[in-house]
Task: structure prediction
Amino acid sequence: MSADTKIAELLTELHQLIKQTQEERSRSEHNLLNIQKTHERMQTENKTSPYYRTKLRGLYTTAKADAEAECSILRHALDKIAEIKSLLEERRIAAKMAGVYSDSDPPRKTMRRGVLMTLLQQSAMTLPLWIGKPGESPPPLCGAIPASSDYVAKQGDKVAARVKAVDGDEQWILAEVVSYNHSTNKYEVDDIDEEGKDRRHMLSRRRIIPLPQWKANPETDPEALFSKDQLVLALYPQTTCFYRALIHTPPHRPQDDYSVLFEDTSYADGYSPPLNVAQRYVVACKENKKK
Result:
């Protein structure tokens, strides 16, 4: 089965799941309305009789079952979305290897700066939010949680890579994994913002930091976020380079960005004014001392 056919099938299944979610929600709303009316009658009569207690117990049991059923459908839908995104990424990588490009991923030499920045912004916005089950801890690469020590980034994954610049200085850049050699423990990566011979780098594992694969939800998993004043590497806005920064304000809502203070000697206190950076592009800094 071709990737296009599989994606079409998954989209059809996703559409059906969305319809089921709507049907489940409509059915549960009737029960929630009954709960509200029962509470109103109890307030009017100013008493809690055994009849009302029994009735509410039954209504709340049904409401809990309805919520769990809707949650199950939504999780199934999220799995379908993840599968579709994975197939699209596989197709993009295959086309790139074959030298075939699409409008959404043109070759770097033909890509205007603004287009690249827009693509990076879209990547940050579409990063999935981790939604765990009750009591489930966020996994590695969710928000600030680092990858496990034996983790190997896959082909096509975006990473922060420490490379030598033209002037000899080292810098952290946004790169895409091309391959990993298990015998040498080295990555082959492409600079996301370069074309030609200067684009590809061979780097050891210690020079690679995988980017988050899920956003952490501040409302349910605040421990999976960097905390205020923590030293990080953050992608400077409108660039493809990571620089040292302090967390000024962590996200308060799932859709919020970090507010960070970049190290900048042109300011009296050594830091820039607060700038927003998406969770996708904030990783732990391996160097603790300020330069």
Remarks:
- The beta strands are 158-164, 170-181, 186-191, 200-204, 208-210, 231-235, 241-249, 258-262, 275-277, 282-284.
- The mean pLDDT is 90.
- The longest helix spans residues 50-98.
- The CA atoms of residues 233 and 244 lie 5 Å apart.
